[in-house]
Each structure stands twice: as structure tokens, then as C-alpha cells.
């Protein structure tokens, strides 16, 4: 099984105001469908996550690079 790229940093808390995960910046819908997305779509979304978090005012999070995982995050 090929590794699936993921921005997950295991801080899985949804910000009520923005609907974004405070750890990675994805929405619940994106998290739920992450494993079925094409890698190009995942890559494009990951590139946009820092902007989303900044616009939502979510800045208190550990700096961690996206990681490759063997499961679906």
C-alpha cells in the first residue's frame, strides 16, 4: 500500500468559528474524504492550509512538516 501524504499533526480539534481543524487546517469533510482524494488534490489543499489557518486566526500550533502516513488520516 502506498503512503498517503497528510498534514495531520495529531492535534484534532475543530475550531467552532471556522470549522477548521486547529492542527492541520482541514474541514471535517476534507478529513473524511482524504483517503479517496487524488494525490494532486491533497497536495493543492495542503499548500493552502497555512493561509486558511492564518485567516481563521489559528496561529498557536506546533510547527510540524506534513508527513507521509501508511493509513488514512
From TrEMBL:
Protein name according to UniProt: Fe-S protein YdhL (DUF1289 family)
Superkingdom, natural source: Bacteria
Pfam families in UniProt: DUF1289
